Amino acid sequence: MTEAATPLSVIGRTLSRADVAALLAEEAPALHFEDCTFDGEDLSRLVLRGAQFFDCSFTETSFERADLRDTRWMGCKGRQADFHLADLTDARWARCDLNNTVWARATLSSAVFTEVKLTGAGFHEARTLGLGFHDSLLVGADLRGMSFRKQTLSQLDLSDADLAGCDFREAVFEGGSVRNAHLRNARFEGADLRGVDLGGLKLASLGAAFKGAVLSHDQAAALVEDLGVRVV
After folding, report:
1. Phi and psi dihedrals of 152, rounded to 5?
2. Distances from the Cα of 61 to the Cαs of 44, 163, 171, 173, in angstroms?
């Protein structure tokens, strides 16, 4: 049996674009970064496929058009990092702080975010087939046009998020919130919303988008009371 190739480990360093390019030139099977800092660096267009990042910092770093397929990101901090047009197919993120990051037109097919802070993140026109979010904060995020159809959405905080045109048909919400979210042209037909916070939503504005959706008695009562009707 052929042994798995050993990745090149880089630990506790502050790295520039030139440093990363030099590591890539060594043609290691993969790069493993631990407790490294990339803050403010331009890492655009680099091929980092399969790289692993553990407890790293890349605040305001540019990964624009980078090849980040099959990458792993654990416990990282990347506030305002730019992933515009990057390829993140099959990437995995866990317990990261990615507030106000940019993912516009990135490829996120089959990528997964678990316990990730994405407050204010922008995903406009990203390619998201098979994308999954779990136990994550997406407060104020731009998710326009994204499809969550038939997905199980576990503990997603979508408060104040822009969900215009999103497809939640037949989705199951396990906790979480869409409080004060922007829902213009979003679709929830057949969705199970019994576990989600619907605060701030107005019955008159929901229309046919919620046809066949499943609500709890308390949720339905709160929506009806917005019309001045008392439920007893």
Report:
1. -95, 120
2. 9, 27, 34, 33
The structure tokens 């339905």 sit at 220
Q: Which of 146, 133, 96 is nearest to 117 (CA)?
A: 96
Angle at 204 between CA 201 and CA 232, to 5 degrees: 80
| Stretch (H or E) spanning 152 | strand 152-154
CA dist., res. 75 & res. 53, Å (int): 8
Inter-residue contact 51 to 73 (CB < 8 Å) = no
Q: Are the beta carbons of 131 and 151 closer than 8 angstroms?
A: no
Q: Which of 185, 137, 132, 179 is nearest to 159 (CA)?
A: 179
**pLDDT tens-digit readout, 107-165:** 999 999 999 999 999 999 999 999 999 999 999 999 999 999 999 999 999 999 999 99
CA distance 46 to 116: 24
DSSP secondary structure of 179-218: TT-B-TT-B-TT-B-TTSB-TT--HHHHGGGGTT-B--HH
